[in-house]
Amino acid sequence: MLPPPDAFLPELQFQTARSSGPGGQNVNKVETKVELRFQPQASALLTEEQKLRVLEKLASRLTADGVLIITAQESRSQQRNKELAVQKFYELLQRSLHQPKARKATKPGAGAVRKRLEGKRRQSEKKANRRADY
After folding, report:
1. Rounded Cα distance, 69 and 57, in Å
2. Confidence at residue 82, expressed as pLDDT on a 0 to 100 scale
3. Which residue segments constitute the domains of the chain, with CATH numbers given?
4. Cβ-count burial of 76 within 10 angstroms (0-12 exposed, 13-18 middle, 19+ buried)?
5. Cα separation of 82 and 88, whole Å?
6. At what angle do helices 78-97 and 48-57 cross, to 10 degrees?
């Protein structure tokens, strides 16, 4: 079970920078881009098993030091970008920790087998009727 998003806030580090995109003169003056940094290995909220799973699933998104970096610069507001970064982080964490149910192999039912064979028989008859008997 994953703790709520606000439980991770003490473990997250935020850095701001000037953003690109909409905002006009605001973009040139205000640091609205937010960069969120998280170290899965150092997390006190994740179990060892969860840490390994996160490191494995998010390997392509981690830096060489094992830091997950998420940026948000969609909004003109730094506060809104911070909220978006935390939201992205939590969704990414949930997706990486999700374990799909194992598929149980089953045999096809008698009706399904009958239907498949009937379709094959019908197709065979259709092709046989096309042949010219010499």
Report:
1. 14
2. 93
3. 5-97 (3.30.160.20)
4. middle
5. 10
6. 100
Alpha-carbon span 76 to 78, nearest angstrom: 7
- What is the value of pTM for the model shown? 0.72
Which of the four pLDDT bands, split at 50, 70 and 90, describes residue 22? low
The mean pLDDT of 105-129, rounded to a whole number, is 95
Q: What is the mean pLDDT of residues 38-43?
A: 92
CA of 132: how far to CAs of 72, 88, 115, 129, in Å? 70, 66, 28, 8
d(CA 103, CA 96): 19
Nearest to 39 by CA among 21, 13, 14, 16: 13
